[in-house]
Amino acid sequence: MITRLQNQLENVMPALFGTGLVIYAFTALAFYSYALNPANLVNGYAGTYLILLGLIRIKPSKNKVVLGLIVAVALFTIIGNAIFHYTDSSSVWGELISWTWSGLIALSISEFYYSRFKSFLTIWQLVLMALLLLSAIMNVTEINMSISSLFTGVLHNSRISRVGIGFSNVNFLGSFAGTLMMISVFQIIKNNLRIFSITTFLFGLLLLLNAGSRTPLIAFVVATIVGGIIIVLKRWGKMLWLGVTAGLVIATLWFVLIIYFDTPSSAFFKAYDLASSKRLSLGYEVAQYLKKHHLEVLGTGLRNKALIKELFFPGWTWSIQLDSSIGYYLFTLGNIGLTFIIGIWVWILIRIEKYGSKIAVLTGLYVSVFMFFEHVLFTYAGFFGAFWTTLIFILLRMVANRDEHAISIEEPVIIEESLNLSRNQRQKPTFKLVDYLKKKIKNYLSAGNYVGRK
């Protein structure tokens, strides 16, 4: 009886998870579009619902890195607060709880969808396309159809107009459109909804150029070109990938050394600061604050990115915040925390590329470029945490499953159903019995052994 109930529950679980993920994804996007608190509230309920569905499915032995990441960040924050007595420590604890909770949401989703990867991509593709199309229709007069002039403006940073089609920030639109393009590429790679995916890719490109966001465009171009070279040159792929990860470490170290030891008056500093839209200046201010208050080792504790400027740097006149993941983790977790985060990310990059997954290569490159300009690496907040952090966890879980069963991670959809579900294992003898009976009946009839024969 219990086994039968478990089997019935497994039958409806995709529908239960799918409903929760659709609501979770839609509200994560809608919050930025309409800035409604109810969207954020519903998103929290949907996330809790997904945890309740997926928490019992999580296998700690298959998610050691993710669980270790969550525990390590908590320990950094607890130890740092005990030593330095952080300013506004209540907000630090609130941020830590939110970070951990959202990590569990991503972990719960990844545990269910690593074996249903196409479904995960399709849900996000449909939700993104639906909301972006709705926003475009409602603000159609804002959209510029002159692709060449839009592209030229983005390249030369001389954009005539930037539109958000209802989103509270044009860069939100750019981030969503860039992600829609990447998902479309993933779907084409997996030969899933190819015509639709080509359409969504072109639509995402149009919106990205209208938003005028350079970061997602640069990340996409780097991911597809460098990723394409690595994928095509299979013989040298692993060596090139090691070069990419080494370059990431060098770029991070270079960024930290500049903000700690260079001066804003140097020509080199000014040139890079201009190219990065003042992000280097923000990093410099962060480094000076940490040195002044002797917080270089463990930082100031986890913080809501939006509140850092208000609480610590009220004199900042720039409209942007502490966007870079490098600057964010340096400020909140210090040198030790940043080293740990980058170390984990490098290990993940090597790990997910291990079995030659094209999607893993493109994901690693896209996030690695993006994180230097926006705080997206292991972020829990909003859309980027809901999709990209979860995607990274899914890729890790797929590799763990690959290690166990020696199967390709490019086509993992049937893995769980074929290897783990006892229900299917019991069905196999049934199908064999039916085939056997059919064969016997056919032989019996062909021999003329039936009622009414002459």
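The above is record 1. Record 2 follows with the same two-line structure.
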Amino acid sequence: MIFGFKESFGIEIELNTFFHDDFIGEGKFIVFINNMTYGIDMPYATTFFCIKDELLKYYSESINADIKLTKYSGIEIARSYYGQNYSNIFLDAYDRDLLARTKNLLTWSPESAFDDGSYIIQIDEDDKIRLIGFKSCTKDERYIVDEKSTTELRIEKTVFKQILNKAYLYLMQFST
């Protein structure tokens, strides 16, 4: 089932089988931003059911709301965040202000939803949500942000919350 739109922002959820007290199962959880796919698009991938709790958190809380990043592009933010937290690249070339603002950004939990190196950064900007999606890859034995996989979108906060709410309510029917 798809909530929202692949062309802008959407979430696709497919649940097949649950194990271990509904904590883990087979299915898929895919996020689309500008037709880019984040998550493993296979019907029997591992899916952690705690994604419903994550969706509720993204719906009800402001994420990265006080971090002013409007002057930076999505690729700059993704590289700075990933470079500081997961990579072995040199950070000397990065803007110090950008490094300070992106070091502790909250991302959509790759541990519970994505198993393909995908990350989604959500930034609340007044009445809009800015989403930056990207995937990591290796190049010359270094972990980097895959520029071709990076995209960003600003979406009305009400539309964003409607999509998350529909996805959350769909998942709730599987709760025991």
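The chain has a mean pLDDT of 83.
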